């Protein structure tokens, strides 16, 4: 049986790829429904890459920072390049920076989570128990 983290990672990567190929008129039709103080497109990119980095960190057996963040960078550059093929969409360096910011936060949160889970399993999570 596949790890649920691997399945989630694959689904998130597929979602990122499909969303990048969405024609701009479709994207704007979705974004026009959201009115608020934050840019929903920016928030979506941050969240998707944070979730993807978080799930990939849990899916691999040896989560090294350079592997996770390097994979996120490759995915970010590839998805930005895919926008050349989408109607009225254009790649941007700002998109890569936004996505890498999300990936960094997702990886950091996963690293903290894994460290706490390891301490919990070893019985050293609560120093008051000593």
Shape, principal axes of CA atoms: elongated
Q: Please tell me how large the radius of gyration is.
A: 17 Å
- Helix amount, in percent? over 70%
What can be said about the biggest beta sheet?
A: none
Q: What share of the residues does DSSP label as strand, in percent?
A: under 5%
Number of domains: 1
Number of helices: 5
Integer average pLDDT: 85
Annotation, overall tally of beta strands: 0
Structural class: mainly alpha
Keywords: Membrane, Transmembrane, Transmembrane helix
Transmembrane segments: 42-61, 68-87, 93-112
Organism: Caenimonas terrae
Protein name: VanZ family protein
Quick recap of the structure?
By secondary structure, this protein is mainly alpha-helical. It has helices at residues 4-20, 24-31, 40-59, 65-82, 93-122.
Please characterize this protein's 3D structure:
The chain is an all-alpha fold and 130 residues long. It has helices spanning 4-20, 24-31, 40-59, 65-82, 93-122. The protein has one domain.
Jot down its keywords.
about 130 residues, mainly alpha, 5 helices
Furnish the topology, listing elements before pairings.
Elements: H1 4-20, H2 24-31, H3 40-59, H4 65-82, H5 93-122
């Amino acid at each position: 049986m596949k790890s649920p983290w691997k399945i989630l990672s694959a689904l998130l990567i597929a979602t990122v790829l499909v969303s990048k190929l969405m024609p701009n008129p479709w994207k704007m039709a979705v974004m026009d429904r959201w009115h608020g103080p934050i840019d929903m497109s920016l928030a979506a990119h941050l969240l998707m890459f944070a979730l993807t980095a978080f799930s990939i960190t849990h899916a691999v057996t040896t989560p090294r920072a350079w592997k996770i963040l390097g994979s996120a960078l490759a995915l970010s550059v590839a998805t930005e390049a895919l926008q050349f093929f989408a109607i009225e969409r254009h790649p941007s360096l700002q998109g890569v920076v936004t996505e890498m910011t999300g990936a960094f936060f997702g990886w950091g949160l996963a690293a903290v989570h894994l460290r706490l889970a390891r301490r919990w399993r070893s019985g050293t999570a609560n120093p008051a128990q000593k």
